Amino acid sequence: xxxxxxxxxxxxxxxxxxxxxxxxxxxxxxxxxxxxxxxxxxxxxxxxxxxxxxxxxxxxxxxxxxxxxxxxxxxxxxxxxxxxxxxxxxxxxxxxxxxxxxxxxxxxxxx
Length: 111
Known about the structure:
Layout: H1 2-13, H2 32-44, H3 47-54, H4 63-76, H5 86-91
Helix pairs in contact: 2-4
């Protein structure tokens, strides 16, 4: 994950927006963050930790879960990292967020 962090930091330092994140979904806004959390948990811990988390053996207030939230937040809550800034994350519909990759010029960049 260090490479992901370093690339994100470098892209932002170069004046580019590295991420397009949208968690909006009407009355269900926020659910797309579960996919991000799952990915972070799976990349940060052995699979059994994830299995224990989804079966509720590992509680949501466990430090491992908090660390995953903090990691995701370090991207999603950073105005320099997200198209539209951190405030746009919750209000951008998850179906619309990838569109920044396909505008001309692109709003966000794939390295």
